[in-house]
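Why do we care about 3D structure at all? Because function follows from shape, and shape follows, mostly, from sequence. That is the central idea of this module. The next example makes it concrete: a single protein chain, its amino acid sequence, and then its structure expressed as tokens.
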Amino acid sequence: MMKLLASLIFFTRLPFWRIADVPPVYFKRVVDYWPFVGWLTGGIMAGSLWVFAQILPIPIAALLALIARLLVTGALHEDGLADFCDGFGGGTSREKILFIMKDSHIGTYGVIGLILYFGLMWNALTTLPISLACCGILAGDAWSKFCSAQVINTLPYARKEEEAKAKVIYDRMDLKTQLLILLAGALPVLLFLDSCYWWATLAPALVVVFFISLMRKRIQGYTGDCCGAVFLCSELSFYLIINLIYHNL
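And the structure:
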């Protein structure tokens, strides 16, 4: 229970810290329950989209749903995406990339990355029927978090622990934990999406493989910013493939 609570505290801005005082050691295992956090963040985003769509045009409802998740997560992953784009876009060496990613200022690549991400995300949601968009969010959030969690099991951390933004390096998962988060990621897909859309699960997996290869080549490891960027890109790919399937049925 402490691991789950640590994950909820780390990955959201909701006051879960009031429930109990979580020892620091548990924050090394927050990725173990990342897909379970996806149940909450995906549920809030999908629920917001559904509610707002009953009283507002779908384009506005989709934007408000995106804002709702940003408020819940504190834009944690979006900050990682911006830093990732700045670092990998402007850095010419491992040291330069890591230095740029740690800089709190946003650069041109980060701005462009966020604009492209939100533009594609908004369009992906607004071009689907509201029911399918909501079900896609419920499934895509958790599944993409499961896929993205494989980064920490595949690559070493690229910095020393004291240099990490969150001052913590995630522990790799054992087989039991891997099976648990596979269940957590796959269950919403099985429950909320018709089988014809299950093909969309391949997209996040392929995106994660691509990013792992890129990070291994450029910085010989990963950072927290990398994890956030990988999650958002893999989740976006999930919705894009659902769109592709829907519009070609």
